[in-house]
Each structure stands twice: as structure tokens, then as C-alpha cells.
């Protein structure tokens, strides 16, 4: 009897294993996931829009170390020593110039800092390997003071050199060399030079621009200019 029980023991174990494996695993997984899937998901908070940061580009301005409101010292601030000044002047030989006579005071420095830049003369422009050919000013115009200056607007137009042109079926780009040796790609609509020179046409021989030149009356006027290609 004891041997008979041992004979049926492996069969019982095998039958129990087959019964456990026969259960559908998908049903067991659904029973475990049903409490989770039946829950109501929490509401999602709307995403906040990212803050738009305006790009900051350095703009060349006046010298910050010159105080335009500083004036020359008044007579009340200077010591009243006419005798010492006269003795100092009398002791100096007449052939030597007075160094204080040619020294500018603070008011002159302030006036010079606020004065508009002096234009180069035609002789100074002729000393450059010039490709700068302006024509007389035209009608009066207004400029966009809020426009961000482009890299080649930090140079005088006569300092730029037209080196070549690249073109395909859709666009044409001019190759401009700046004084620092870099080559810039310029297309129609971009700006060159210090006088708001906007590129209006590019061809193999020249680049045509329309500038807004500041005149002595304080207004801006149209002026047609061009950069010609230098054949080496």
C-alpha cells in the first residue's frame, strides 16, 4: 500500500503543475490592472508660455566717460592769485609757447564729444584703394532708429571690398571683405557702411546701394552709392 502511494505521487504533482499553467495569464493581468485603470486621471495643468526675451545687440554710441554737462570752472572756484600768474608768465622766455594756452578745457571736450563726426575729405578717400563712388544726395528721408545695426555697418563704405559673387536660380550673394580679413555674404536688402546703405542690386561688376546721409541741417537724404568689383 505504501509503494502504491509513492507510485501515484509524481502523477499528482504533474497534474497540479499542468492545472496551474492552464490558467489564462491575460485574465490574471486584467484582474490586477482593473483597480488602476478604473481610476479617474487627475486633470493636467496647462503649460505656461515661455517668456520672450528680446535679443540685445551692442550699439555703438557716444563715449560714456565724457560728461556733456560739465562746464569750465568759474572764477569763484579758482584762487585769486594774479600776481603769481603774472610772475610765472614774466619768468618764462618769450620764445617758449605757453603750454596752458593750447590745452583744451572741459567745455571744449564736451562740445567735441557731442559734435557729429567729420566727413573725410576727397583727398583722404582717394588714398584708399577706393571702390566708393557716391552721387549727390537726393530727397529727404527718415531712418528707422530702432533697427538693429548689421555687422558691416560698423565700417565706412570705402573700407569694404567687393571680392566676388555667388548665385543660383533663386538668389544672388555678394562676397564682401571687411578690414579684419573676414568674408561676409551679403544679399539684396541688407545694409553696408555707416550711412544706412541698403543693398538694392547685385551684379558681377558692382553692388548698388541707397544711403541715408545726415546733412548739416540735421535731416537725412537719399544718396545712391556703389561698390565696384576690383579685377586683379
What level of helicity do the residues show?
Answer: 10-25%
Output the CATH topology of one domain: SH3 type barrels
Structural class: alpha+beta
Which CATH architecture of one domain would you pick? Roll
Task: Describe this structure as you would to a colleague.
This protein is α+β, with helices and mostly antiparallel strands and 232 residues long. It has a domain at 125-228: SH3 type barrels (Roll), CATH 2.30.30. 25% of the residues lie in helices and 19% in strands. The protein is built from five helices and eight strands; from the N terminus they run H-H-H-H-H-E-E-E-E-E-E-E-E. The protein has helices at residues 2-21, 25-37, 82-91, 106-114, 122-126; strands at residues 140-141, 161-167, 172-177, 183-186, 191-192, 197-202, 206-214, 220-228. A five-stranded antiparallel sheet has the order 1-8-7-6-5, with no helix packed on it. Strands 2-3-4 form a three-stranded antiparallel sheet, with no helix packed on it.
Amino acid at each position: 500500500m505504501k509503494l502504491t502511494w509513492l507510485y501515484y505521487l509524481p502523477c499528482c504533482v504533474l497534474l497540479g503543475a499542468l492545472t496551474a499553467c492552464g490558467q489564462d495569464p491575460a485574465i490574471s493581468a486584467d484582474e490586477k490592472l482593473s483597480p488602476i485603470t478604473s481610476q479617474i486621471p487627475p486633470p493636467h495643468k496647462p503649460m505656461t508660455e515661455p517668456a520672450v526675451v528680446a535679443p540685445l545687440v551692442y550699439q555703438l554710441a557716444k563715449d560714456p566717460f565724457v560728461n556733456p554737462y560739465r562746464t569750465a570752472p568759474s572764477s569763484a572756484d579758482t584762487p585769486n592769485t594774479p600776481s603769481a600768474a603774472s610772475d610765472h608768465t614774466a619768468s618764462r622766455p618769450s620764445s617758449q609757447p605757453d603750454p596752458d594756452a593750447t590745452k583744451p578745457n572741459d567745455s571744449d571736450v564736451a562740445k567735441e564729444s557731442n559734435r557729429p563726426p567729420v566727413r573725410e575729405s576727397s583727398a583722404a578717400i582717394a588714398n584708399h584703394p577706393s571702390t566708393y563712388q557716391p552721387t549727390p544726395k537726393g530727397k529727404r528721408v527718415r531712418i528707422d532708429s530702432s533697427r538693429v545695426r548689421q555687422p558691416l555697418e560698423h565700417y565706412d563704405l570705402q573700407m569694404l571690398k567687393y571680392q566676388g559673387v555667388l548665385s543660383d536660380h533663386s538668389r544672388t550673394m555678394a562676397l564682401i571683405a571687411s578690414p579684419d580679413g573676414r568674408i561676409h555674404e551679403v544679399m539684396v536688402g541688407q545694409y553696408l557702411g555707416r550711412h544706412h546703405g541698403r543693398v538694392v542690386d547685385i551684379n558681377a561688376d558692382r553692388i548698388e546701394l541707397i544711403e541715408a546721409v545726415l546733412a548739416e541741417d540735421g535731416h537725412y537724404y537719399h544718396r545712391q552709392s556703389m561698390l565696384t568689383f576690383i579685377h586683379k
